[in-house]
Amino acid sequence: MPEKDEKESLLKDLADALANDEKIPLRNANLVFGEGAADSDICFVGEAPGFYEDKEGRPFVGRAGKLLDKLISDVGLKRKDVYITNIVKRRPPGNRDPLPDEIAAFAPYLSKQIEIIDPKVIVPLGRFAMNYFLPTAKISKDQGKLFWWGKKLIIPTYHPAAALRSTTVMEELERNFKKIPAAVRKYEMFVADRGGAISEPQSAQKSLF
Asked: Quick check: keyword Ribosomal protein in the entry (predicted)?
């Protein structure tokens, strides 16, 4: 398994490749590749940068980002110790939802990012990120549940921006975030209980809590 320094180098090379990829859409916007610990056990994946992210070149730095920082801190974690990125790594015009062809164009870079970091737990934030990993899942029904995606545990949850508009969503987010450190701590036990490899997304709920 690559050491942290090697992973950081591989991520930098990947970011450079993306920056120079002229086939990628939304090239008028700034690249927001991702940031955090290159060897983290936890990777948060959002849908796309917004206004402030585009301006600063960093993911989750606006109001939703400040809430994400608080949620991370409230469960005993630090932002610098996790990895944060988006599927689409350039801001869609007017903060519109990312289009299917945009998601498809950026998807190989996210896949490679995850391969390099090799986290134990991936937390998709919002339905677009969730459906990248779990194409048939519904955010209202499946948020907070736990799934296997290959050897990764997936804990889909609402996007922090949704919690800024709803106390109910905020309460769900807080409950879901409490599952993250527990999933990391018990990961090896869950893998052993699971047995053989799973090639398609599968519920892990019974194995976890």
From this structure: no
Closest among 158, 145, 141, 154 to 46, alpha carbons compared: 158
DSSP string, 127-186: HHHHHHH-TT--HHHHTT--EEETTEEE--B--HHHHTT-HHHHHHHHHHHHHHHHHHHT
pTM of the full structure: 0.92
> pLDDT of the chain along its 209 residues, tens only?
789 999 999 999 999 999 999 999 999 999 999 999 999 999 999 999 999 999 999 999 999 999 999 999 999 999 999 999 999 999 999 989 999 999 999 999 999 999 999 999 999 999 999 999 999 999 999 999 999 999 999 999 999 999 999 999 999 999 999 999 999 999 998 888 876 444 445 555 544 55
The CATH number given to 4-208 is 3.40.470.10
Q: What does the domain layout of the chain look like in residue ranges?
A: 4-208
The Cα–Cα gap between 104 and 183 comes to 29
CA angle, 174 as apex, 169 and 176 as ends, to 5°?
90
Alpha-carbon distance values, 90 to 53, 70, 137, 195 (Å) = 9, 24, 25, 39
